[in-house]
# Entry
Amino acid sequence: MRERQAARERRRAREFEAFVGGAGGRLLRTAVLLTGENDSGAGPHEAAERLLTAALADTYARWDRLRGADPYEHARQELAARFARSARRYRRTHGTLERLAPRERLVLVLRLHEGIAEEQVAACLGLPTERVRVLCTRAVAVLRSRRTPPVVP
# Structure
């Protein structure tokens, strides 16, 4: 019996390791965008890594119950939920998304970076669909207003 359980744990660990190997980079990029840490792609991303580690720990803890479900979807939802619960930590960020409020940043990343439909984002965040649409529109307008006009020679 112990051998069977040990074999199941090894299989579970291998499956999870393969999942993280395939999806970890994209999830980290999402976490970096959410936390606003140096979103140029260079440098340390301590807050994003902490956020991602917590989301992946939850995903691993629920791995056996995720059979048939998309583990990426679960990890992304957990990442978004953890960010939403602790968004006050990320108010002072640097980079492209610095002028966005945490909720606007969350909606923008889920909608545009992750490509999730408004209805799904609304369900994930417990918001009306119209509110998600307004937050995304406002966030895009803020980012567009920061653009500098091209220099014409």
User: Anything to note?
Assistant: Residues 149-153 have pLDDT under 50 and may be disordered.
